[in-house]
Every structure is written in structure tokens, then in C-alpha cells.
Amino acid sequence: MDLPIVYHPDYVAPLPPSHRFPMEKFRLLYEMLLGDRVVTPEQCHAPELPPQDWIESVHDPEYVQAYCQGTLDPKAQRRIGLPWTEAIAHRTCISVGGAVLTAKLALEYGLACNTAGGTHHAFPDFGSGFCIFNDLAIAARMIQKLAGIRKVLIVDLDVHQGDGTAYIFRNDPDVFTFSLHCEANFPGRKQTSDLDVPLPVGMEDDEYLQTVAGYLPDLLGQFQPDLVLYDAGVDVHAGDRLGKLALSDTGIFRRDMQVLSTCLAAKYPVACVIGGGYCEDMRGLVYRHSLLHRAAAQLYRQYRL
């Protein structure tokens, strides 16, 4: 079998034309992966809507009900940064199902990639920064329950700190949160991950990759996870309008190769989500997201998973 990819057409829901969230990137990413023959339709798995209790394994039931029914307080809705519609609520839930399915496939095959995900700013009782439900946290909790595993390592290399994820697992020794992020960026109030590595504005490829290499191998050896959840945000790119770091396309590809090969060489399964990326050049943005899947497809063959 080839690298498992998770995608659903409902990863895209309509937004107002002027909205700054690049919703179309999920569909365009899938189309680019097929068009460039990185993947075939046979490799692609479609998630189902998750039961509500999966979401409530992390989130407050009152918050879940209010969001899903469209009765969330307007101030709380503004904090999320996305308008409420039935389509967006459905998209939010199907994306959670995608993260859990990606985790299941990673345990089965050694490596799997979602074509969405990384909603790490969602807290138990509120959403923030385009994040409504925390798919990383829900995937970690549910894969522990569904697959009977214990230890999950979340490697969050989005340019923004994974504050919601850090808060959710602040007292959970079985989920280790590692966030490598730009220090002078959203969120203004940081949470405490198990390991936070704040980076200076303008950091470029080589220094960034050396920083990852300075932490990840030791972390894997010390924590010895049953599963790694990898948030491969591309808002670390020099051209990202919300990023403040200065990686190139090549640097992002090298990063993804480095993270995945470090985990796979040590025989740790990896489930990947694409994380953030915000750029006026939509094709350039989608290409940067595709670098994760290109790296994963290459390593999947190399390690004969």
C-alpha cells in the first residue's frame, strides 16, 4: 500500500469573498497532489462525522452544543474569527474526524497525512484564531481510547504557539506537547507546553533546522511515544503574512523530511496535519502545504512501510 492520505470535500465551506482565511487551500491541495501524481485517489481515505462525545472528550459540552447549534455568544464567535454557518460547523466536525482517522492510519501503516487540521488555538470552552475544536487534542485523546495506546507526542511546528493544546494537556503526563514557534507572534498570552522553544523574528532555514535537530531526537528517546502527531504549519515561510519567520520552500521541505525521518528511523509512527499558512499567492501556499505530503510519500517508500 502507498502512503495513506485523508481528505474530504467538506473540508471546504463557503466564506465571504473578502475573508482572510484561505479556505480553498484544502481542495486545491488535494487537487495538486493528484495532479502532480504525488498520490492517487486509491490512497485517499474519507473521514466520517465523529460522534459528539469524541469532541466532548476535550471540549466543554455546553460550548460544543452552543457552537454546533449556532447559539454561541457573538463575542465568543468573533474571537474564533470565522462566521457561523451550518456548512462551517459541519466542516469543523468532519475535520476532527479526519484527524482521528489520520491517527488510526498512522498506527496501522506507520505514517499518514491529513490534508487539513492543526486547530491548536481551541481551548476546552472557547475557540480562537480560526480554531473551533482542537483536532490535535481530540485525536490524541481518542486514539488513546480507540487503539489502547498510552503516550502521544505532539510536535507543533506551526509558527504560532499551540496554546490550546498546551492548556488541555497541562496536567496529563501521557501527552507531551512540544511547540517551536515565533516568540513575537500570536497568541499574545502564551501557555506553558511541556517544551516551548520560542524563536526570534526572521530566523532562516539552517538555524531553524539546527534547532529542530537539537531537540527532537532527544525528546523521542526520553518520552518514547506510541504515536507522534505532527503539526506541519507552513506559516514559518518568509512570505507568510502572519508568520514573522523566514524559511524558504526548500527549508520547509527539509524540515518535514527531517522530522519524519527522525521519527521513522526510530520506529515511531507519525500522523500529520497541515497546520497554518496565510499568503496572497494561493498556488504558492498550496505548494508549500504539499511539501509535507511529498516528503511523506518519499519516506514511506524509503522505509517500506
TrEMBL record:
Which UniProt keywords are present, listed alphabetically? Hydrolase
Question: Taking every annotated instance into account, which residue ranges of this chain make up the domain Histone deacetylase?
Answer: 19-280
Q: How far does the signal peptide extend, from start to end residue?
A: none
Q: Which InterPro entries match?
A: HDAC_classIV, HDACs, His_deacetylse_dom, His_deacetylse_dom_sf, Ureohydrolase_dom_sf
Family from the record: Belongs to the histone deacetylase family.
Q: What is this protein called?
A: Histone deacetylase
